Amino acid sequence: EKGGYDYFMLKEIAEQPQAIADTLLGRLSERGEIVLDEVRLTDQDLRDVDKVFVIACGTSYHAGMVAKYAIEHWTRLPCEVELASEFRYRDPILDRSTLVIVISQSGETMDTLMALRHAKEQKARVLAICNTNGSTIPRESDAVLYTHGGPEIAVASTKAFLTQLVACYLIGLHLAQVRGVMYADEVAAVVSRLQRTPDDLRELLADMEDVRALARELKAAPTILFIGRHVGFPVALEGALKLKELAYMHAEGFAAGELKHGPISLIDDGTPVVCVVPSPAGRGVLRDKVVSNIQEVRARGARTIVIAEEGDDTVGAYADHLITVPRTPTLLAPLMTTVPLQILACEIAAARGHDVDQPRNLAKSVTVE
Ligand code: M6R
Protein backbone atom coordinates (compact mmCIF):
# COMPACT_ATOMS: atom_id res chain seq x y z
CA GLU A 1 0.00 0.00 0.00
CA LYS A 2 3.03 2.28 0.33
CA GLY A 3 3.58 1.76 -3.38
CA GLY A 4 7.18 0.63 -2.96
CA TYR A 5 8.15 3.54 -0.71
CA ASP A 6 9.49 3.07 2.82
CA TYR A 7 6.97 5.53 4.24
CA PHE A 8 3.60 6.94 3.32
CA MET A 9 5.20 10.35 3.62
CA LEU A 10 7.64 9.59 0.76
CA LYS A 11 4.80 8.21 -1.32
CA GLU A 12 2.73 11.32 -0.68
CA ILE A 13 5.67 13.60 -1.51
CA ALA A 14 6.03 11.74 -4.80
CA GLU A 15 2.30 12.14 -5.51
CA GLN A 16 2.48 15.93 -5.31
CA PRO A 17 2.71 16.61 -9.06
CA GLN A 18 -0.45 14.57 -9.65
CA ALA A 19 -2.20 16.10 -6.64
CA ILE A 20 -1.57 19.59 -8.03
CA ALA A 21 -2.74 18.57 -11.51
CA ASP A 22 -5.91 17.03 -10.04
CA THR A 23 -6.63 20.13 -7.99
CA LEU A 24 -6.31 22.29 -11.11
CA LEU A 25 -8.37 20.00 -13.30
CA GLY A 26 -11.49 21.58 -14.73
CA ARG A 27 -11.02 24.85 -12.86
CA LEU A 28 -10.73 27.06 -15.92
CA SER A 29 -13.82 27.56 -18.07
CA GLU A 30 -13.60 28.08 -21.81
CA ARG A 31 -14.13 31.78 -21.18
CA GLY A 32 -11.03 31.82 -19.01
CA GLU A 33 -12.98 32.04 -15.77
CA ILE A 34 -12.14 30.11 -12.66
CA VAL A 35 -14.70 27.52 -11.62
CA LEU A 36 -14.89 26.65 -7.93
CA ASP A 37 -17.00 23.84 -6.46
CA GLU A 38 -19.88 24.17 -4.03
CA VAL A 39 -19.68 27.92 -3.93
CA ARG A 40 -22.95 29.01 -2.43
CA LEU A 41 -21.89 32.63 -2.65
CA THR A 42 -22.93 34.86 -5.51
CA ASP A 43 -20.52 37.00 -7.48
CA GLN A 44 -22.25 39.96 -5.86
CA ASP A 45 -21.41 38.52 -2.41
CA LEU A 46 -17.80 38.33 -3.49
CA ARG A 47 -17.89 41.89 -4.84
CA ASP A 48 -19.24 43.08 -1.50
CA VAL A 49 -16.27 41.65 0.40
CA ASP A 50 -14.11 44.36 1.92
CA LYS A 51 -11.74 42.26 4.01
CA VAL A 52 -10.42 38.70 4.03
CA PHE A 53 -9.31 36.56 6.96
CA VAL A 54 -7.50 33.28 6.43
CA ILE A 55 -7.73 30.94 9.41
CA ALA A 56 -6.01 27.58 9.92
CA CYS A 57 -3.61 25.55 12.08
CA GLY A 58 -0.16 24.08 11.58
CA THR A 59 0.86 23.43 8.01
CA SER A 60 -2.50 24.69 6.75
CA TYR A 61 -1.73 27.99 8.49
CA HIS A 62 1.49 28.21 6.49
CA ALA A 63 -0.56 27.80 3.32
CA GLY A 64 -2.70 30.66 4.63
CA MET A 65 0.37 32.84 5.07
CA VAL A 66 1.25 32.31 1.41
CA ALA A 67 -2.39 33.05 0.51
CA LYS A 68 -2.15 36.47 2.13
CA TYR A 69 0.63 37.54 -0.25
CA ALA A 70 -1.27 36.26 -3.28
CA ILE A 71 -4.70 37.59 -2.30
CA GLU A 72 -3.48 41.07 -1.42
CA HIS A 73 -1.36 41.29 -4.54
CA TRP A 74 -4.05 40.10 -6.93
CA THR A 75 -7.23 41.48 -5.36
CA ARG A 76 -5.98 44.58 -3.49
CA LEU A 77 -8.23 43.52 -0.61
CA PRO A 78 -6.78 43.64 2.89
CA CYS A 79 -6.12 40.08 4.05
CA GLU A 80 -5.17 38.91 7.51
CA VAL A 81 -4.00 35.43 8.34
CA GLU A 82 -4.39 34.02 11.79
CA LEU A 83 -4.01 30.83 13.78
CA ALA A 84 -7.44 29.35 14.43
CA SER A 85 -6.64 28.84 18.10
CA GLU A 86 -6.00 32.57 18.55
CA PHE A 87 -8.64 34.03 16.28
CA ARG A 88 -11.86 33.77 18.20
CA TYR A 89 -10.43 34.64 21.58
CA ARG A 90 -9.39 38.14 20.59
CA ASP A 91 -12.75 39.47 19.46
CA PRO A 92 -11.92 39.97 15.77
CA ILE A 93 -13.90 42.53 13.79
CA LEU A 94 -16.14 40.67 11.35
CA ASP A 95 -19.39 41.38 9.53
CA ARG A 96 -21.29 40.26 6.45
CA SER A 97 -18.77 41.84 4.12
CA THR A 98 -15.90 39.86 5.62
CA LEU A 99 -14.77 36.74 3.77
CA VAL A 100 -13.26 34.13 6.08
CA ILE A 101 -11.26 31.42 4.33
CA VAL A 102 -10.68 28.39 6.54
CA ILE A 103 -8.08 25.86 5.46
CA SER A 104 -8.07 22.29 6.74
CA GLN A 105 -6.83 19.07 5.22
CA SER A 106 -8.96 16.87 7.47
CA GLY A 107 -11.96 19.15 7.75
CA GLU A 108 -12.23 18.09 11.40
CA THR A 109 -9.69 20.26 13.22
CA MET A 110 -11.51 21.53 16.28
CA ASP A 111 -9.67 24.86 16.58
CA THR A 112 -10.50 25.67 12.95
CA LEU A 113 -14.09 24.52 13.32
CA MET A 114 -14.62 26.73 16.38
CA ALA A 115 -13.11 29.70 14.55
CA LEU A 116 -15.47 29.01 11.63
CA ARG A 117 -18.49 28.93 13.94
CA HIS A 118 -17.40 32.17 15.54
CA ALA A 119 -17.08 33.79 12.10
CA LYS A 120 -20.54 32.59 11.13
CA GLU A 121 -22.05 33.94 14.33
CA GLN A 122 -20.67 37.33 13.31
CA LYS A 123 -22.38 36.91 9.90
CA ALA A 124 -19.15 36.62 7.94
CA ARG A 125 -19.11 34.52 4.77
CA VAL A 126 -17.04 31.38 5.15
CA LEU A 127 -15.23 29.60 2.36
CA ALA A 128 -13.46 26.34 3.18
CA ILE A 129 -10.44 24.80 1.49
CA CYS A 130 -10.54 21.15 2.41
CA ASN A 131 -9.19 17.78 1.30
CA THR A 132 -11.87 15.58 2.85
CA ASN A 133 -15.26 15.39 1.16
CA GLY A 134 -18.23 15.70 3.46
CA SER A 135 -16.22 16.48 6.60
CA THR A 136 -17.53 18.92 9.21
CA ILE A 137 -15.72 22.09 8.16
CA PRO A 138 -16.95 22.13 4.54
CA ARG A 139 -20.43 21.10 5.70
CA GLU A 140 -20.67 24.15 7.93
CA SER A 141 -19.19 26.59 5.41
CA ASP A 142 -20.98 28.75 2.83
CA ALA A 143 -18.67 27.59 0.10
CA VAL A 144 -16.02 24.93 -0.45
CA LEU A 145 -13.11 24.44 -2.73
CA TYR A 146 -11.89 20.87 -2.43
CA THR A 147 -8.23 20.09 -2.87
CA HIS A 148 -8.07 16.88 -4.85
CA GLY A 149 -4.98 15.59 -3.12
CA GLY A 150 -6.39 12.16 -2.33
CA PRO A 151 -6.08 10.61 1.14
CA GLU A 152 -3.09 11.73 3.16
CA ILE A 153 -2.01 9.01 5.61
CA ALA A 154 1.29 10.31 7.02
CA VAL A 155 0.76 12.60 9.99
CA ALA A 156 3.06 15.17 8.38
CA SER A 157 1.16 17.09 5.76
CA THR A 158 2.85 17.30 2.36
CA LYS A 159 0.65 16.92 -0.70
CA ALA A 160 -2.24 18.52 1.16
CA PHE A 161 -0.07 21.60 1.69
CA LEU A 162 0.83 22.01 -1.97
CA THR A 163 -2.79 21.53 -3.05
CA GLN A 164 -3.91 24.04 -0.43
CA LEU A 165 -1.53 26.52 -2.02
CA VAL A 166 -3.09 25.83 -5.41
CA ALA A 167 -6.58 26.32 -3.95
CA CYS A 168 -5.52 29.63 -2.37
CA TYR A 169 -4.13 30.82 -5.70
CA LEU A 170 -7.39 29.87 -7.44
CA ILE A 171 -9.49 31.71 -4.88
CA GLY A 172 -7.27 34.78 -5.11
CA LEU A 173 -7.56 34.77 -8.89
CA HIS A 174 -11.31 34.17 -8.79
CA LEU A 175 -11.82 37.05 -6.39
CA ALA A 176 -9.63 39.32 -8.50
CA GLN A 177 -11.60 38.44 -11.62
CA VAL A 178 -15.07 38.76 -10.11
CA ARG A 179 -14.12 42.10 -8.60
CA GLY A 180 -12.74 43.35 -11.89
CA VAL A 181 -9.14 43.76 -10.71
CA MET A 182 -7.78 41.19 -13.18
CA TYR A 183 -8.94 40.38 -16.71
CA ALA A 184 -9.74 36.83 -17.81
CA ASP A 185 -6.58 36.64 -19.92
CA GLU A 186 -4.40 37.72 -16.98
CA VAL A 187 -6.00 35.06 -14.81
CA ALA A 188 -5.60 32.46 -17.55
CA ALA A 189 -1.89 33.32 -17.82
CA VAL A 190 -1.34 32.57 -14.13
CA VAL A 191 -3.41 29.38 -14.38
CA SER A 192 -1.42 28.18 -17.35
CA ARG A 193 1.77 28.84 -15.39
CA LEU A 194 0.27 26.82 -12.53
CA GLN A 195 -0.50 24.02 -14.98
CA ARG A 196 3.21 23.71 -15.71
CA THR A 197 4.16 23.20 -12.08
CA PRO A 198 3.44 19.44 -11.97
CA ASP A 199 6.06 18.86 -14.68
CA ASP A 200 8.51 21.17 -12.97
CA LEU A 201 7.94 19.33 -9.73
CA ARG A 202 8.53 15.94 -11.37
CA GLU A 203 11.85 17.25 -12.60
CA LEU A 204 12.74 18.48 -9.11
CA LEU A 205 11.70 15.23 -7.41
CA ALA A 206 13.85 13.20 -9.78
CA ASP A 207 16.94 14.87 -8.42
CA MET A 208 16.80 14.73 -4.62
CA GLU A 209 19.84 12.49 -3.97
CA ASP A 210 21.93 15.42 -2.70
CA VAL A 211 19.21 16.34 -0.23
CA ARG A 212 19.20 12.77 1.09
CA ALA A 213 22.98 12.81 1.50
CA LEU A 214 22.75 16.16 3.25
CA ALA A 215 20.11 14.75 5.63
CA ARG A 216 22.53 12.06 6.75
CA GLU A 217 25.16 14.73 7.45
CA LEU A 218 22.76 16.90 9.44
CA LYS A 219 21.11 14.22 11.53
CA ALA A 220 23.07 15.03 14.68
CA ALA A 221 22.90 18.83 14.45
CA PRO A 222 21.67 20.39 17.71
CA THR A 223 19.49 22.84 15.80
CA ILE A 224 18.64 23.80 12.24
CA LEU A 225 17.46 27.30 11.39
CA PHE A 226 15.41 28.31 8.36
CA ILE A 227 15.19 31.79 6.88
CA GLY A 228 13.15 33.32 4.08
CA ARG A 229 11.40 36.50 3.00
CA HIS A 230 8.00 37.19 1.45
CA VAL A 231 6.45 33.81 0.52
CA GLY A 232 9.78 32.23 1.45
CA PHE A 233 9.05 33.09 5.09
CA PRO A 234 6.11 30.65 5.44
CA VAL A 235 8.23 28.10 3.56
CA ALA A 236 10.93 28.55 6.21
CA LEU A 237 8.34 28.06 8.96
CA GLU A 238 7.03 24.96 7.22
CA GLY A 239 10.54 23.49 6.86
CA ALA A 240 11.14 24.03 10.58
CA LEU A 241 7.75 22.56 11.56
CA LYS A 242 8.39 19.42 9.55
CA LEU A 243 11.73 18.92 11.24
CA LYS A 244 10.36 19.42 14.76
CA GLU A 245 7.40 17.17 14.07
CA LEU A 246 9.32 14.28 12.49
CA ALA A 247 12.91 14.43 13.68
CA TYR A 248 12.21 15.79 17.20
CA MET A 249 14.98 18.30 16.64
CA HIS A 250 15.09 21.91 17.57
CA ALA A 251 14.36 24.00 14.51
CA GLU A 252 13.09 27.51 13.94
CA GLY A 253 12.00 29.51 10.96
CA PHE A 254 12.54 33.26 10.73
CA ALA A 255 11.76 36.12 8.43
CA ALA A 256 15.30 36.73 7.19
CA GLY A 257 15.05 40.45 7.92
CA GLU A 258 14.40 39.72 11.60
CA LEU A 259 17.75 38.00 12.12
CA LYS A 260 19.53 41.15 13.16
CA HIS A 261 16.78 41.89 15.68
CA GLY A 262 17.71 38.89 17.81
CA PRO A 263 17.98 35.42 16.32
CA ILE A 264 21.38 35.99 14.73
CA SER A 265 22.87 35.41 18.21
CA LEU A 266 21.91 31.76 17.82
CA ILE A 267 24.41 31.28 15.02
CA ASP A 268 27.51 29.45 16.11
CA ASP A 269 30.31 27.74 14.24
CA GLY A 270 28.70 25.19 11.93
CA THR A 271 25.03 25.99 12.73
CA PRO A 272 23.05 24.80 9.71
CA VAL A 273 20.91 27.58 8.23
CA VAL A 274 18.53 26.73 5.40
CA CYS A 275 18.00 29.83 3.26
CA VAL A 276 15.07 30.12 0.86
CA VAL A 277 16.14 32.50 -1.90
CA PRO A 278 13.50 34.33 -3.97
CA SER A 279 13.68 34.39 -7.73
CA PRO A 280 16.09 36.94 -9.18
CA ALA A 281 13.49 37.66 -11.86
CA GLY A 282 10.61 39.97 -11.01
CA ARG A 283 11.60 40.93 -7.51
CA GLY A 284 15.36 41.08 -7.66
CA VAL A 285 15.44 43.34 -4.60
CA LEU A 286 14.02 40.59 -2.43
CA ARG A 287 16.54 38.09 -3.72
CA ASP A 288 19.43 40.46 -3.05
CA LYS A 289 18.20 41.09 0.48
CA VAL A 290 18.17 37.38 1.23
CA VAL A 291 21.64 37.00 -0.26
CA SER A 292 22.93 39.66 2.10
CA ASN A 293 21.25 37.83 5.00
CA ILE A 294 23.07 34.68 3.89
CA GLN A 295 26.35 36.58 3.94
CA GLU A 296 25.58 37.82 7.46
CA VAL A 297 24.97 34.34 8.86
CA ARG A 298 27.97 32.93 7.03
CA ALA A 299 30.21 35.59 8.49
CA ARG A 300 29.18 34.23 11.91
CA GLY A 301 30.06 30.66 11.06
CA ALA A 302 26.77 29.27 9.73
CA ARG A 303 26.77 26.33 7.36
CA THR A 304 24.43 27.54 4.64
CA ILE A 305 22.03 25.30 2.78
CA VAL A 306 20.68 27.45 -0.01
CA ILE A 307 17.48 26.74 -1.94
CA ALA A 308 17.57 28.87 -5.09
CA GLU A 309 16.22 29.00 -8.58
CA GLU A 310 17.98 27.38 -11.50
CA GLY A 311 19.81 30.07 -13.40
CA ASP A 312 20.60 32.16 -10.31
CA ASP A 313 24.26 31.99 -11.19
CA THR A 314 25.83 33.96 -8.40
CA VAL A 315 24.09 32.61 -5.32
CA GLY A 316 26.24 29.47 -5.27
CA ALA A 317 29.16 31.51 -3.95
CA TYR A 318 27.36 31.86 -0.62
CA ALA A 319 26.20 28.27 -0.33
CA ASP A 320 27.88 25.39 1.47
CA HIS A 321 25.14 23.27 -0.12
CA LEU A 322 23.16 24.51 -3.08
CA ILE A 323 19.78 22.99 -3.91
CA THR A 324 18.24 24.34 -7.10
CA VAL A 325 14.56 24.34 -8.01
CA PRO A 326 12.89 25.06 -11.36
CA ARG A 327 12.19 28.70 -12.21
CA THR A 328 8.77 29.76 -10.95
CA PRO A 329 7.06 33.16 -10.58
CA THR A 330 7.61 34.59 -7.09
CA LEU A 331 4.12 33.98 -5.68
CA LEU A 332 4.04 30.39 -6.93
CA ALA A 333 7.57 29.51 -5.79
CA PRO A 334 6.49 27.75 -2.54
CA LEU A 335 5.18 24.93 -4.77
CA MET A 336 8.85 24.22 -5.49
CA THR A 337 10.90 25.46 -2.55
CA THR A 338 8.90 23.53 0.07
CA VAL A 339 9.62 20.15 -1.46
CA PRO A 340 13.34 19.77 -0.65
CA LEU A 341 12.49 20.77 2.93
CA GLN A 342 9.88 18.00 3.18
CA ILE A 343 12.46 15.47 1.99
CA LEU A 344 15.14 16.85 4.27
CA ALA A 345 12.91 16.46 7.34
CA CYS A 346 11.71 13.01 6.31
CA GLU A 347 15.23 11.73 5.70
CA ILE A 348 16.69 13.25 8.87
CA ALA A 349 13.89 11.63 10.88
CA ALA A 350 14.52 8.28 9.20
CA ALA A 351 18.27 8.59 9.78
CA ARG A 352 17.57 9.22 13.47
CA GLY A 353 15.50 6.03 13.57
CA HIS A 354 12.06 7.60 14.04
CA ASP A 355 8.70 6.43 12.78
CA VAL A 356 8.28 8.97 10.00
CA ASP A 357 4.58 8.36 9.42
CA GLN A 358 3.53 8.30 13.06
CA PRO A 359 5.59 10.80 15.04
CA ARG A 360 5.27 10.62 18.81
CA ASN A 361 2.57 12.67 20.56
CA LEU A 362 0.81 13.66 17.33
CA ALA A 363 -2.47 12.72 15.68
CA LYS A 364 -3.38 13.19 12.03
CA SER A 365 -6.53 14.98 12.90
CA VAL A 366 -6.68 17.16 16.02
CA THR A 367 -10.27 17.02 17.15
CA VAL A 368 -9.83 18.64 20.57
CA GLU A 369 -9.32 22.32 21.27
O1 M6R B 1 -6.38 18.88 9.01
P1 M6R B 1 -5.83 20.26 9.19
O2 M6R B 1 -5.26 20.83 7.93
O3 M6R B 1 -6.84 21.21 9.79
O4 M6R B 1 -4.65 20.11 10.23
C1 M6R B 1 -3.95 21.21 10.72
C2 M6R B 1 -2.69 20.79 11.44
O5 M6R B 1 -2.99 19.98 12.55
C3 M6R B 1 -1.71 20.02 10.52
O6 M6R B 1 -1.41 20.76 9.37
C4 M6R B 1 -0.41 19.69 11.25
O7 M6R B 1 0.28 20.85 11.54
C5 M6R B 1 0.43 18.71 10.40
N1 M6R B 1 0.68 17.50 11.13
C6 M6R B 1 1.74 19.29 9.96
O8 M6R B 1 2.48 18.41 9.19
UniProtKB/TrEMBL annotation:
GO biological process: carbohydrate metabolic process; fructose 6-phosphate metabolic process; protein N-linked glycosylation; UDP-N-acetylglucosamine metabolic process
Enzyme class: transferase
Subcellular location: Cytoplasm
Domain SIS: 42-181, 214-359
Keyword tags: Aminotransferase, Cytoplasm, Glutamine amidotransferase, Repeat, Transferase
Active-site residues (renumbered): 364 (for fru-6p isomerization activity)
GO molecular function, one term: carbohydrate derivative binding
Subunit annotation: Homodimer.
Name of this protein: Glutamine--fructose-6-phosphate aminotransferase [isomerizing]
Organism from which the protein derives: Actinoplanes auranticolor
Interval of the full protein contained in this chain: 273 to 641 of 641
